[in-house]
Design goal:
The structure is a single chain. This protein has 10 helices and no strands. The protein has about 260 residues and is mainly α. It folds into 2 domains: about 100 residues, no CATH class; about 150 residues, no CATH class. It is a multi-pass membrane protein.
Length: about 260
């Protein structure tokens, strides 16, 4: 085996391990997403079927594989299990690999992947309940603060400005237009502002507004009474995109104008 093949094999094993690790974290995120809105402890008690309440056996709780093995049904009651569970596991595994590919196996990888995992929880809970739990926003402050040490290129002044450059206008708009933005959205962008710095915070908001706007237009086009939508998921996509590739996107945009 030559050196090139050996390196490729080692990299494959490393990325596979990281994917499996991410999928396991994704399984835990499913627990958080289900339990937090219902105020059930995420630290106590075994996983259980949301339909019949039967505890899930360990060998039936293997990320993705168990869902396929059980054909998407509970082993006890036979009720269908939402495909969202394995999809979140797959997505979290893929995110872990993507972050590793961008940042390598480093402290930056740990911080960015942690942010991504928390944003998945925030996005899905907001999608389900139209609320962003304060506890998750507070938890997001931990990797945001750690980012100050692993991303020193983002200056403190930029981070401070980032905390208010979007969240403050959102607050003002909400004061004049009731329910324009949720309190959770405003707090989320304040924390994201410190994490990203003000240029990437503006970019994240722009991405969120574009994605949310597309969905809003589709809701208006439908003949349904309920026109409300959660904005948090689209902000989360914008935040993660800006964190992973914000500088490159901004540089590409400025280059269009010769700047």
């Amino acid at each position: 085996m030559n050196d090139t093949v050996a390196v490729a094999l080692i990299n494959f094993i490393l990325y596979l391990y990281i994917f499996v690790f991410g999928a396991v974290i994704g399984s835990f995120l499913n627990v958080v997403i289900y339990r937090v809105p219902q105020e059930i402890s995420i630290a106590k008690g075994r996983s259980f079927c949301p339909k019949c309440g039967a505890p899930i056996k360990g060998y039936h709780n293997i990320p993705v594989f168990s869902y396929l093995w059980l054909r998407g049904k509970c082993a006890d009651c036979g009720e269908k299990i939402s495909p969202r569970y394995p999809l979140i596991e797959l997505f979290t595994g893929a995110l872990a690999v993507l972050v590793l590919w961008i940042f390598g196996f480093s402290f930056q990888w740990i911080v960015v992947f942690t942010v991504g995992a928390m944003l998945i929880c925030i996005a899905m809970i907001d999608f389900d309940t139209m609320t962003i739990p304060n506890g998750l926003v507070i938890a997001l402050m931990v990797p945001a603060l750690l980012s100050f040490f692993c991303f020193p290129q983002v200056e403190l002044l930029s981070r401070v400005i980032g905390m208010v450059v979007v969240s403050l206008p959102m607050l003002v708009i909400t004061l004049f237009i009731g329910e324009a933005f949720g309190g959770g959205d405003i707090k989320l962008m304040a924390v994201a502002g410190f994490l990203l710095g003000w240029p990437n915070t503006v970019l994240a908001t722009f991405i969120g507004l574009v994605l949310g706007g597309v969905v809003a237009v589709s809701l208006l086009a439908k003949k349904t009474k309920d026109k409300h939508m959660a904005f948090g998921p689209y902000l989360c996509v914008g935040i993660m995109t800006a964190l992973l590739a914000g500088d490159a996107i901004i540089k590409c945009y400025l280059s269009l104008f010769g700047l």
